[in-house]
Amino acid sequence: MGHFSTLVSMREHLERRRSEVENRRVSEGSHLRHYVQEQDARLLQYNNTLSQLQAQLDGVLSQALRWVKTCPR
Question: Which residues form a coiled coil (predicted)?
Answer without folding.
Answer: 36-63
